[in-house]
Amino acid sequence: MSIKVDPNLMKDLRHFGLKDADKCMHCGNCTAVCPLSTEDNPFPRKLIKYAHMGLADKILKSPEPWLCYYCGDCSDNCPRGAEPGEAMMAMRRYLTSKYDWTGFARKFYTSETFEIIAVAIVAIFVGLALMLFHAGSPNMEHAHLNSVWPASAIEIADLIMAAILTFLLLSNTYRCARFQMGDLLFKIPLGIYIRQAKELVIHFLTQKRFSECTDKMQWLVHLLIMTGYSTVFLLVAVFLAGGLEVIGLAWEPIAFQRDVIYPIYHPMRLLGYYATFAIFYGTTYAMIGRIRKKKAPYKNSHGTDWMFLILLQLTTLTGILIHFTRLLDWPMPTYTLYVIHLMVAVPMLVLEVPFAKWAHLAFRPVTIFLIKVREAYQKEMQTFA
Ligand code: SF4
Ligand code: SF4
C-alpha cells in the first residue's frame, strides 16, 4: 500500500498554531507522562512524528487529537520545549478545517483578518436586521422587548438559525466519523452503536476523561464553560423557543423572549443563573491564564482562542446587564443592550458552532464513542471467530 507524503504539512500546520514541534527529538517522554495516552491510542509523540513525516492522511484518520484535553502535562515534561500539548491543539484546529466541507473553517483558522471581518459582517448584519425590522413604536414606559421585536418573529429567526447550524455541525461530524472509521462505519451493526450510545452522553456531559489529568482545575473550567453553554442552548433553543410546548410538557405558555420575569425560585431562572456564573467564571479564568501565561495550556494563544473567549464573555456580560435593566424596568437601555447582545451572541454561534471551538464539543465525545464502538465490535468478532 502506497503512503502519500505531504511535504508542506509542517508549514500548513504552522498556520493552525503549530510552533516548536521541530525541536522534538522523539524521546517519548510526553507519551509516557500523558495520563490519557493508552497502549491502543498512544499520543502525542506519534502525532508529532506523523507531522514531521508529512503523513497528512494518517493525522486525518487519527482519533488521538480528540483524546487530548490539553492539560499541559506533556509540555511541562518535554526536555526540548517542543510544546507537544500545543501541537495537539494545532492538529485539532487542522482537523476541524479538514472535516468542514465548506472551507470556511480553514479560512477562519488561518487568517486573523478573515476571522475579524467574518465576525464584524455577521454582527453588522444582525444589528441592521434588528434596526430595520421592528414593530411600530416601542413601549417607552416599560422595558417590553416584545413591543419592539415580536417574540414570534425572533423565534422563527432562532429556529432557522438552529436548523442551519445543526445541519452544518452534523455534516462535519459525519465527516469526522467517516475519516476515522472508513468503511467500518457502515459495517458495524446498528445494535452496537445503540448499546454504546451511553458513552456519547456520558463523555459529552461530564468530560470524564479530562478529570484523569493532573490539573483538576483545568477540567473544572472546561466543564463549567461546556455545561454553562449547553444550559443556555437548552434554555434558548428548547425551553424558551417553545420546545416543551411542542411535546406537551410546558407548565405555561412560553416564548423565545419573555417580558415577564420568572420568580427567583423558578427552575428556568435558577438554570439561567447557573449558566451565567459557569460561563463567566470559566472564561475569566481562561482569559487571566492566557494573559499570565504560567500554565502550559495558556502559554500559546491562537487568534481564535481569544476571539472565542471575548465573544463568549461579551455575550454573558451583555446578558447580565439586560437582566438588570429589565429588573429596573429601563426601556431604552434594555433595547440598546439587546441589540448589542445579539450582535455578539449570533456571530459567536454562527461561526464557532460549526466551524471552530464549539465544534470540538461534538467531535471529542463522538470520537470516544466510536473508539468504544470499534472495541465492542472487535470483541464480538473475536467471540464468533
Ligand atoms: S515532544 Fe518533547 S517529550 Fe515528546 S517526544 Fe518530542 S522531545 Fe520528547
Ligand atoms: S496536553 Fe495532556 S492530554 Fe494532551 S497530550 Fe499532553 S498530557 Fe496528554
What does this structure look like?
With 385 residues, the protein is an all-alpha fold. It folds into two domains: 9-99, no CATH class; 104-384, no CATH class. Helices cover 69% and strands 0% of the residues. It is built from 19 helices and no strands. Helix 10 (151-181) runs parallel beside helix 18. One iron/sulfur cluster (SF4) binds at residues 34, 36-37, 43-44, 68-74, 84-85, 88, 213.
- What's the number of domains? 2
Largest sheet: none
Radius of gyration, CA atoms, in whole angstroms:
23 Å
Q: How much of the polypeptide forms β-strand, as a percent range?
A: under 5%
Terminus-to-terminus distance: 27 Å
Overall pLDDT score: 88
Bound molecules: iron/sulfur cluster
What would you call the shape? globular
SS summary, helix count: 19
In which range does the helix fraction lie? 55-70%
Contiguous low-pLDDT stretches (5 residues minimum) are 241-256
The run of helices and strands is HHHHHHHHHHHHHHHHHHH
Per DSSP E runs of 2 or more residues, the count of β-strands stands at 0
Structural class: mainly alpha
